[in-house]
Design a protein that fits this description.
The protein is of the alpha/beta class. The protein has helices spanning about 5-20, 25-35, 85-90, 100-110, 125, 130-135, 150-160, 185-200; strands at about 45-50, 65, 80, 95-100, 115-120, 165, 175-180, 210-220, 225. GO terms for molecular function: rRNA binding; structural constituent of ribosome; tRNA binding.
């Protein structure tokens, strides 16, 4: 039985349908996604990209980071796990928390009041025990995402400024927030372009045929707005 949609969702869908059949240029999609933000809070703007990859194969795993030019609009809580000599540096760079053993214990006891964990290589042996807690939530520090690093201060500043991590899911899709409905359409478009440019750069050599199959923008509560794949030609 099809899911019954709420009044605001139906109104947003009607706005998209009135704009045409789609898919839309990225500029048009950015404007439409703002118009479909009908909730009473500042909705996130999400981008979904369906890739022609098989994530079951290690050589087709797409994972990376990108610094969004306008950030995500979300306050990111950063925890730095490092030896005591690095705590002051981390906090001065903007980290919300910095420590080691006491935070490891708190996490094991259920504390998860953070969005990103950054660690130095020297303490990863201690953090390994947190893998079963942080891993499923996408919070485990990883060198590939820039969250295991000697340059703690730079990593903290980048995350606070709008660097996001992304990873293809088991169905071959990328899904991440790239801004807020309160952003201008130009800010949404420029963030989307930065994200897509990095996705294209990460194309696995083993992928045959179409790499990007579809792109949509949507708000937290709204329907997807299809984006024309022609946008990719301007980003190569």
């Amino acid at each position: 039985m099809p899911k019954k949609r709420g009044k605001r969702y139906r109104q947003a869908l009607e706005i998209i349908q009135q704009a045409g059949d789609g898919p839309f240029t990225l500029e048009e999609a950015a404007e439409l996604v703002k118009k479909t933000a009908l909730a009473k809070f500042d909705e996130s703007v999400d981008i979904d990209v369906r890739l022609g990859v098989d994530p079951r194969h290690a050589d087709q795993m797409v994972r990376g980071t990108v610094a969004l030019p306008h950030g995500t609009g979300k306050k990111v809580r950063v925890l730095v796990l490092a030896d005591e000599g690095r705590w002051k540096e981390a906090l001065e760079a903007g980290a919300d928390y910095a420590g080691l053993d006491e935070y490891i214990d708190q996490i094991q006891n259920g504390w998860l009041e953070f969005d990103v964990v950054i660690a130095t290589p020297q303490v990863m042996s201690k953090i390994g025990r947190l893998g079963r807690i942080l891993g499923p939530r996408g919070l485990m520090p990883n060198p590939k995402s820039g969250t295991v690093t000697e340059n703690v201060a730079e990593a903290v500043r980048e995350v606070k400024a709008g660097r996001i991590d992304f990873r293809v899911d088991k169905t071959g899709n990328l899904h991440t927030a790239i801004g807020k409905a309160s952003f201008t359409s130009q800010q949404i478009r420029e963030n989307a372009e930065a994200f897509l440019r990095e996705v294209l750069r990460l194309r696995p050599p083993s992928v045959k045929g179409a790499y990007v199959r579809s792109i949509t923008l949507s708000t937290t509560m709204g329907p997807p707005v299809p984006v024309s794949l022609s946008v990719l030609n301007t980003l190569r």
